[in-house]
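1st attempt posting a full record on here, be nice pls
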Amino acid sequence: MQFVETLVERKEFPEFKAGDTITVHYKIKEGNKERIQNFQGVVLQRSGSGATETFTVRKIANGVGVERIFPIASPFIEQIDVNKRGAVRRARIFYLRDLTGKKARIKEKRF
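the predicted structure (as tokens):
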């Protein structure tokens, strides 16, 4: 497994975990053009380790929940901004999928 680690170039991203609200700046290729699209939402989980680590981000778009799984080592991720730190007690917050409205809010962690 050590061999795979050396092949994948990993960028430095800020520390984030489940419950945090982040913005992922993601490169998208359309034809021969390339642009950066922002995906802002709540981190539901981080899974895996090393080169195969991924994280799931959920947002509500036009009243519909949209989840996207990003590989941490993806060359298409330009940068990750942490907007809010969430105060949650578990590492995988899939219970958020069933909640709507005010119940779906996550308390912000104070420093």
